[in-house]
Amino acid sequence: MTLTGPIIAAVLFGALLHASWNALVKSSADKALDTAVMQIVGTLLFLPLLVLVGAPPRGAWPFIAASCVIHIGYYTALAGAYKHGDLGLTYPLMRGVAPLLVALASGVTVGEYLPTLGWAGVAGICAGVLVLGLSRHAMERPRAVAFALANAVCIALYTVVDALGVRASVRDGGTALQYVTALFVFNGWPYGVAVLTRRGWRVSLPYVRRRAPLAALGSTASLASYAIALWAMTKAPVAVVAALRETSVLFAALLGTWLLREPFTKRRALGTAVIVAGVIALRLG
Fold it and tell me: d(Cα 146, Cα 150) in Å, to the nearest integer?
């Protein structure tokens, strides 16, 4: 398995989609409720797609079930991070620590060991992401940092589980799209229903109807982004794809500056340069 130019281009496009839906959640007035709306709308939106593409093979379902459980923790930590911290702080922390954890675990779980230059690329991307996110003000928001780091663990867990699951699906004659569609149909509704029930359905349903069009866009971007990543993991090493996907922080920084009026500082410029160097190292490795 090797990282080719087309795979890099596809994963970078997926990174842009991923940053876009995270910016959508961050821009909302109620992060937890908007995240819940995205999951409910996504479940309804992708059910016809699942019927169209078909269910994944039987061997993929244990991985889908495990990923669904992990995603409950992911959505909870995601909403908490965005509630207590800026997109420019929390998003890089979540996405920067996770690929390093995946790289450390991939040898045991997936049987893939990175070469020296590959490790340099992963470390460079993680370091650049953290430079983008960490600042002298980071410790002023300990709850945001705690939620973000907890989410990094969740991201690493579901990345490894889904990489194993999508490879099992393809090995048994299925596709990455079948796997990710089934995952999105089932993984969002437990968190979504729990949040809407806690808020009260009478209050929540008008909000759901009002935010449904934007939620549909966010859900579609989320599915497309993850489908690209999982497809890439059937063609290239898991740790490499996981690290490359986190270049989404560059897009998040730009979107945060453009849409949310967050400053693009010299520190962010430095982080960008380090990430680019890491991507080059991954490609050469």
Answer: 6
Give start and end residues of each alpha helix (H) in the chain.
5-26, 31-53, 61-84, 87-109, 116-133, 142-171, 176-187, 189-199, 201-233, 238-245, 248-259, 266-284
Each residue's pLDDT tens digit, 196-237: 888 888 878 888 888 888 888 888 888 898 899 999 999 888
Q: In angstroms, rounded to a whole number, what is the distance separating the alpha carbons of residues 164 and 60?
A: 9
**Pair 275, 43: CB distance under 8 Å:** no
The answer to whether residues 20 and 255 touch, using CB atoms and an 8 Å cutoff, is yes
243-259 pLDDT, tens digit per residue, is 888 777 777 666 666 66
Of 149, 25, 169, 163, the C-alpha closest to 93 is 149
pTM metric for this prediction: 0.82
Cα dist from 253 to 24, 73, 249, whole Å: 13, 25, 6
Task: Residue count of the chain, please give it.
Answer: 285
Which amino acid would we find at residue 215? A
C-alpha–C-alpha distance, residues 44 and 58, integer Å: 23
- Phi–psi pair at 27, nearest 5 degrees: -75, -10
User: Hey, CA dihedral for 175, 91, 211, 154, is it positive or negative?
Assistant: positive
Distance CA 114, CA 3 (A): 12
Return the structure tokens found at 269.
């410029």
